[in-house]
Amino acid sequence: MDSTNILAEKRLKVTPCRIDVLNYLRRCGRAVGQPELQKFFEGKYDRVTLYRTLHTFLKVDLVHTITNNDNGTIMYALCNHSMHVANSNHNHLHFKCLKCNTITCLNEIELQNFILPQGYNLKTLQIIAIGECPQCTFNK
Ligand SMILES: [Zn+2]
Ligand SMILES: [Zn+2]
Ligand SMILES: [Zn+2]
């Protein structure tokens, strides 16, 4: 499926910025922060356009967010669950590599739902495993 179809399926208008950002996210296969996109698309799309694009993607559940606990940057990663199940579970493990500083979704590792004490209302679960990614492990 190409990015135009993905946008159509989400009933989003196809714009050059949406296509470019979606392609970028799909190509790199890891979580991406807005500063990285600003750098990459410098001179092409401004900060506000990129922000709106990411915000739109978030609203239609095309991406989900992870907060990078080092600097508080919001990272955006493509959703991997069925396109037809809106806002389904994002409770999978995220892995942060200390060497190349990437954050990757480990969709296959689902987090269990904690049963919280009364009065606590769980919205999202953010657990980040920290270590070395396969690329850094094997390219030593
Ligand atoms: Zn999602
Ligand atoms: Zn790495
Ligand atoms: Zn994820």
Observed structural traits:
140 residues, alpha+beta, Arc Repressor Mutant, subunit A, three-stranded antiparallel β-sheet, three-stranded mixed β-sheet, 5 helices, globular, binds zinc ion
| Major sheet summary line | 3 strands, antiparallel
Oligomeric state of shown chains: single chain
CATH uppermost class = Mainly Alpha
Question: What name does the CATH topology carry?
Answer: Arc Repressor Mutant, subunit A
Record field, number of beta strands: 6
Separation of termini? Answer: 35 Å
Total helix count? 5
Structural class: alpha+beta
User: What is the gyration radius calculated from CA atoms?
Assistant: 16 Å
Roughly what is the average pLDDT, rounded to an integer?
90
Give the number of domains: 1
Topology order in helix (H) and strand (E) letters: HHEHHEEEEEH
Strand percent estimate? 15-25%
* CATH architecture heading: Orthogonal Bundle
The helical percent reads 25-40%
Poorly predicted spans: none
Ligands present: zinc ion
Order of the strands making up the biggest sheet: 1-3-2
Describe this structure in words.
The protein has 140 residues and is of the alpha+beta class. The chain contains five helices and six strands; from the N terminus they run H-H-E-H-H-E-E-E-E-E-H. The protein has a three-stranded antiparallel β-sheet with strand order 1-3-2. A three-stranded mixed β-sheet has the order 5-4-6, with no helix packed on it. It is globular. The model has no long low-confidence stretch (mean pLDDT 90). One zinc ion binds next to strand 4.
